[in-house]
Design goal:
The protein is about 25% helix and about 10% strand. The protein is of the alpha+beta class. The protein is globular, with a radius of gyration of 18 Å.
Length: about 190
């Protein structure tokens, strides 16, 4: 991680990223530690927290359906994750994209969230770490009725099959999450999440 592999990635403006979040105006970047890059990490807040349970009223019954979570809400959860190499968000670097997020029903009570990530370069050595960060963020944020599947988008990484195998293996993911150094990297990536 000492040497940046892609020192000149394509960066999307925060105003161009799809979101349901209310954008707040950001103050001058003079005192901001990100300086020039401060505008590329969205500074947003939710108008309404999509995961906050609605207040229970007398008209509510047990038969009422759970409010669905859609692809835009998933994107809002993961687009603000910091890239481990750059002081930018995964949404700004186009590592996560709204069209690459899919929610599919598994059964009546379970759904799978599939997120296909696009590394900034085809030989990105941190693709597994980025995928793990996305997986951790979603598993911590989504209700238990969701199963998370994070993959490298086909044809975007030279060892995509190997990375997908690592990200899909529950035992490897559990072992990775016990590694203190890796957990430090993931905590730093997730610090910018809102």
């Amino acid at each position: 991680m000492a040497e940046i592999q892609n020192s000149n990635p394509t960066i999307r403006s925060a105003s161009d990223l799809p979101t349901r979040q209310q954008r707040t105006s950001s103050p001058s970047t003079k005192n901001d530690p990100l300086g020039l890059f401060a505008s590329t990490i969205p500074s947003s807040t939710y108008l309404v927290d999509p995961f906050e349970p609605a207040p229970i009223t007398d008209s509510d019954s047990e038969d009422d359906a759970v409010e669905p979570i859609d692809e835009q809400e998933i994107y809002d959860l993961i687009s603000t994750i910091s890239d481990p190499e750059h002081p930018l968000s995964l949404g700004s670097l186009a590592v996560v994209n709204l069209p690459d997020i899919h929610i599919k029903p598994l059964s009546r009570d379970l759904q799978t969230v599939l997120v296909e990530i696009t590394p900034t370069i085809t030989h990105c050595s941190l693709a597994t770490v980025i995928g793990l960060g996305v997986r951790v963020r979603l598993e911590q944020s989504l209700p238990p009725r969701f199963r998370v599947d994070v993959r490298i988008k086909e044809g975007t990484h030279s060892t995509g099959d190997q990375v997908n195998k690592q990200l899909g293996d529950k035992e490897r993911v559990a072992a990775a999450l016990e590694n203190a150094q890796l957990m430090g990297v993931l905590r730093k990536m997730l610090e910018t999440c809102q």
